[in-house]
Amino acid sequence: MTIAQPSILRAAHPVRVATSVVFFIAGFAMSAWAPLVPFAKARLAINDASLGLLMLCLGIGSLLAIPLAAPWSHRLGCKRPIIAAACVLGSTLPLLAWLESMPLLAMTLLLFGAGLGTLDITMNIQAMAVEKASGRAMMSGFHGFFSLGGIAGAGLVSALLACALSPLASVLVIVAVLFALLALAAGQLLTLTGEDPSAPLFVRPHGRVLAVGLLCFILFLTEGAMLDWSALFLTHEWGMSSASGGLGYALFCISMTLGRLCGDRLINYIGRFRMLLGGSLCAGAGLLLAIDVPAVTLFSFLLLGFGAANLVPLLLSVVSDQRDMPPHLALAAISGVGYSGILTGPALIGFIAHLTSLYVAFCCVAVLLLVVSACARLVTH
């Protein structure tokens, strides 16, 4: 991968800051949806199974965008797809807070998911280039800004709703902040060109890339469960108000942020294997506490977030070191497998919750986190 504009070495700090801002925007926009889920469900008057099908559209949009976003960014540069994806997010968020038709809301979630998928893959390609040029670990730090954006997005929407603003008015504030941040970062986004413009659009994952992709499937499913279902869990199972429903996801994001901001140093100190093993066990324990111990439910979201904080950035670093596939195609491949967790996860959780309860659905996610622990040595050695 060659760097066309601006030179990372000549503008290291501005480019690093711009990359961090883009990660913040992605988390900010995505988490703004979490407190709106109970309002959407009430507005449409649907049950958990129908809501799960609606959530499926977000994952479909992301999954469809990923195979196109990676080669687009690799060949033509990261700047244009990042700006285009952010504009899609800013345009669809108000519709998610306003539409009262299930088909129209489904189409909007499809576009919203496509924007998230495009932004996610493109910002990670840029982050890999910046990290490689710097010669030191930076991926966890960038993902820390994504989590920081998650705190800000969920927290700000929850605060605005608590101040009696309507969901639409609250989202318009979010959109204004999003476009202001994009304007600040746009000038320092990189134009990257690939060394092989004839590279295929997609390569079937194999070897270590496939194993990492399957673990990312579980971790994306877990994060998707927190995004789409944590507010409903707190409001329906523990009786919190709708305005406070986003608190669990905000706490989850707080602990993820703290974990990721110190993640690079921690991984260097204890190693990838111990981080992957300990983090997945910690995340599983936090989820089980949320289910079984009401008195510590909010604390359990902190534990879950801290445990899961560095798992995805760690796995991305593992993929960047492999030689089976070009890094940008490997990233697209594992993102495709991982995002299928967002594609199938919310719908699956919705059906399980409809047949049993959210308790049982969350227990299933906790078991999957134990699978990550069992595979830690396989993918890190």
TrEMBL record:
CDD domains per UniProt: MFS_MosC_like (cd17393)
Membrane topology note: Multi-pass membrane protein
Keyword flag Chloroplast: no
Keyword Magnesium belongs to the record: no
Pfam families: MFS_1
Subcellular location, record wording: Membrane
Segments crossing the lipid bilayer: 21-39, 51-70, 105-130, 142-162, 168-190, 210-232, 238-261, 273-291, 297-317, 329-352, 358-379
UniProt xrefs under Gene3D superfamilies: MFS general substrate transporter like domains
Keywords: Membrane, Transmembrane, Transmembrane helix
Chief subcellular location: membrane
Record-given protein name: MFS transporter
